[in-house]
Write a structure and sequence with these properties.
single chain, alpha+beta, Penicillin-binding protein 2a (Domain 2), Beta-lactamase, 2 domains, seven-stranded mixed beta sheet, five-stranded antiparallel beta sheet, 21 strands, 38% helix, elongated, disordered C terminus
Length: 583
């Protein structure tokens, strides 16, 4: 019996030892698995439960006009979020959300998003970001559990819609989405910081640890003048509503520096309450819209003729037929003229005479002059997504291209390109790249200014003679409506038919009216371009755009305290004995 008992005991011991070894082996394998193979995952889960990395958004830089007036700034606002507990019944969660909806006026879209996240047991749910102080107080009065506030910065535009297309907008996270806000986003937004939020076992926040301090964004000073911008927007809106036009744009600059003093577009909207689909806000027609310029482009043709010495001021052109036939096409004047001198062709904006000037130039000279003026390429203005226009290579010109281009067709330009062209004439033949940012405030003692970029495109003599011709165009030509008492105005009108793709021809009812010029003609203090698209009724540039130029310029000259000028002495023409103006 004892031997049998000993055997049974031995067998039991071996079996127990075997299972113990299996258990020990399994335990060892599991420990190895947890300590080595699954350690990173488990550590991440623990860290996720006990700590969280949060981004510290710095205060975005302020945007000022040239006089130090604030155009855009960021102010602190509270955002509401909800962290539902897993054990909290779904109906109680909905009750909280419904209470918040009544206080915060959540849209149906916002409400649906919140409910979906609640159903998925999302641990963190934004309810409403960057609310005003009144709503903040009302939410606090509800005393809802697990509903918290987080301070963020919200972008404010003190003047609402002023310079809306130029300034642009930011998204909900204060990242630039268009305009200056987008172009200079990396400078304005600063550098983000990070802090660590540590929690106890019950997920209560109990300590913050800053890992990286944020750097506040830099401020910008624009070349824009708040008052001039207001004048431009007010008169542009008045003109668009009066003429029932589709849209319009006005750009005002300082020719000697290339600084943009105002850039107005209409329709526009309030930057503090942008539309749900802000495509109209993102499209700055002053730099984004291509159009055929029509007669304002004749300043380029005239510059080419004077610079190449293909014409003299005493040359005459027969415009008596009122039309000209080119390669099977008939191009007409708006009225029949007789024999016109070279200056008179520009003064009265004769298509027939300008085409003859273009033909005397030849396609090579005309092509090179257009390229030299910068058409078909971006001006380099410091705004995003500038269009370069459409200008075909010489190889693709047709038999009628020289005639069409001479009078501003078969080419698409932007308003800023045409303003740069008139600036070259006002600036005695030198082009200066336009700009809207005057300086970046790196520090109070060390502002960084944008350097001027200059290049000569025509001689000073050519520019001066053409400036005098453009004065006559306002005194007794198509630009009479741009006259300002006490000041000499130099400018050119434009009335371009719009091409209708569905008809395959130019429309007889759709036009773009324009005027481009500078004033005073002697000191050339400001230059301006006015574009009005598809005005109803009267549509010529002389009747629609020129008066807008006059009304804006009159206010700007008064604001800048530019004294009225004495009768201008034509010293340059007197020296060269080219006294065509006395005819």
């Amino acid at each position: 019996m004892s031997i049998t008992y000993q055997k049974k005991t031995h067998i039991r011991t071996v079996i127990l030892a075997f299972f113990f070894m299996i258990w020990l082996t399994g335990l060892t394998i599991r420990l190895i698995q947890l300590q080595i193979f699954e350690h990173p995952r488990l550590k991440a889960e623990v860290l996720e439960q006990t700590q969280n990395m949060d981004t510290i958004h710095p205060k975005r830089g302020t945007i000022y006009d040239r006089s130090g007036n604030i155009l855009a700034r960021s102010l602190p606002r509270q955002s509401v979020y909800y962290t539902p507990h897993k054990a909290e019944p779904y109906h109680l969660r909905l009750e909280k959300i419904n209470k918040l909806q009544k206080v915060l006026n959540l849209s149906e879209y916002e409400l649906q998003k919140i409910r979906k996240r609640t159903e998925r047991n999302t641990p963190f749910i934004w309810i409403k970001r960057k609310i005003n102080p009144e709503k903040e107080e009302r939410v606090k009065e509800l005393s809802l559990s697990r509903v918290y506030f987080k301070e963020e910065n919200k972008r404010f535009y003190p003047h609402g819609k002023l310079a809306a297309h130029l300034l642009g907008r930011v998204n909900i996270d204060e990242v630039g989405a268009s305009g200056i806000e987008y172009k200079y986003n990396s400078i304005l937004e600063g550098k983000k910081g990070k802090h660590l939020i540590l929690r106890d076992a019950k997920k209560r926040e109990y300590r913050f640890e800053t890992l990286k301090e944020p750097e506040v964004g830099k401020d910008l000073v624009l070349t824009i003048d708040e008052t001039i911008q207001y004048c431009a927007e007010k008169e542009l809106e008045r003109a668009i509503l009066k003429t029932e036009a589709d849209w319009g744009t006005v750009v005002i600059s300082q020719p000697s520096t290339g600084e943009i003093l105002a850039m107005a577009n209409y329709p526009t909207c309030d930057l503090n309450n942008p539309p749900p689909m802000p495509l109209t806000l993102d499209r700055n027609r002053a730099i984004h819209h291509n159009f055929e310029p029509g007669s304002i482009f004749k300043i380029v043709t005239a510059s080419a003729a004077l610079e190449a010495k293909k014409v003299t001021l005493s040359d005459s052109f027969d415009c008596s037929k009122g039309s000209i036939h080119i390669a099977g096409k008939t191009i007409r004047d708006y009225e029949r003229f007789g024999i016109l001198s070279f200056p008179e062709v520009i003064i009265h904006s004769s298509n027939v005479g300008t085409i003859q000037i273009g033909q005397s130039l030849g396609e090579d000279i005309l092509y090179e002059t257009i390229k030299t003026f910068g058409f078909g390429q971006k001006t380099g203005i410091d705004l995003p997504a500038e269009e370069k226009g459409i200008f075909r290579s010489l190889y693709n010109w047709s038999q009628i291209s020289t005639a069409s281009l001479s009078i501003g067709y078969e080419i698409s330009v932007t308003a800023i390109q045409m303003l740069q062209a008139i600036n070259a004439i006002a600036n005695k033949g030198v082009i200066i790249t336009p700009r809207v940012v005057k300086k970046i405030l790196i520090s109070p003692d060390e502002p960084k200014e944008n350097p001027l970029q200059r290049r000569r495109i025509i001689s000073e003599e050519t520019a001066s003679i053409l400036a005098l011709i453009l004065q006559k165009a306002v005194q007794k030509g198509t630009g009479i409506a741009a006259q300002i008492e006490g000041y000499k105005v130099a400018g050119k009108t434009g009335t371009a038919q719009k091409f209708n793709p569905s008809l395959g021809r130019y429309s007889s009812t759709s036009h773009i009216s324009s005027f481009v010029g500078f004033v005073p003609a002697e000191s050339r203090t400001i230059s301006m371009i006015v574009i009005i698209d598809e005005p109803k009724g009267k549509y010529s540039g002389g009747k629609i755009a020129a008066p807008v130029f006059r009304d804006i310029a009159r206010q700007v000259l008064r604001y800048l305290r530019i004294p009225k000028q004495e009768e201008y002495k034509k010293t340059i023409l007197a020296k060269s004995s080219l006294r065509w103006d006395e005819r």
